[in-house]
Amino acid sequence: PLLLAVLCAAAENTDPDGDYFEFTCPKPDGQFEDPYQCDRYYECVDGRATERLCPDGLVFNPASKLVNKCDQVFNVECHDRKELQPPKPVGVCPRQNGFFPHPDPAICNIFYNCVNGRELEMTCVAGLHFYQTTGTCVWPDMANRQGCGSNANKKLNDGFQCPKNAPKMDRNGQIITHPNYPHPDDCQRFYSCLNGVEPRQGQCEHGMVYNEDLQRCDEPDNVPGCEDWYSSAEPDSGTGGTRHR
């Protein structure tokens, strides 16, 4: 009877060196982490251990109060439990579950939330980069990712460059994802910075001027300094806009 009790309380497995070991339930009932593999755990019922694996990409969190203790990697301290099950990649998801960066190392503001092998593309607010260690968007100096933004330092032909490390805020204090900036000499024209880093030229339709406060085109009378913009302007056949005499 004693031998039977010992066998029922143990589950056989291998350590990283390939040697067999027996996991013994520390308590008759509960879920307990594997000593070597972070996504493997044991479910003990009446002292009998059954080996379990978390879904690919998740790891066992012994501190969790939930019934399902499989959690995101960035929420768990695996310590010496460095082993993981072989990955099951699908598309842009290197594992079935988790938060992962864009496969192009130059694109640091886009990441993917993978759930059971299905990805959801997500974009950080302007000026932030995805940081896989925490699964969140942070300032570039904290993310410290190399090769980000192949277009981040791009200049337009007239010399305009998107401001660096200075996210533009709206009236409510929220970061503007694709901020606009006024042209220094032309009320009708403006610049757009895609995701805050990639510059594009913009132009209001004839009769309208760019309103910096509203971040859009507006009537000239509503923009100080541009009220008479069209009174002395003529069509510019080269650009489709206007030029002043």
Automatic annotation (TrEMBL):
Domain annotation Chitin-binding type-2: ranges: 22-80, 90-150, 159-228
Chain spans, region Disordered: 223-245
Keywords, alphabetical: Chitin-binding, Disulfide bond, Glycoprotein, Repeat, Signal
InterPro entries, sorted: Chitin-bd_dom (IPR002557), Chitin-bd_dom_sf (IPR036508), Chitin_bind-dev_reg (IPR051940)
Gene Ontology cellular component terms for the protein in this record: extracellular region
PROSITE patterns attached to this UniProt entry: CHIT_BIND_II
Superkingdom of the source species: Eukaryota
Pfam families the UniProt entry points to: CBM_14
Gene Ontology MF term list: chitin binding
Gene3D superfamilies, sorted: Chitin binding domain
Name of the protein this chain belongs to: Putative obstructor-a
Organism name: Anopheles aquasalis
Lineage start: Eukaryota, Metazoa, Ecdysozoa, Arthropoda, Hexapoda
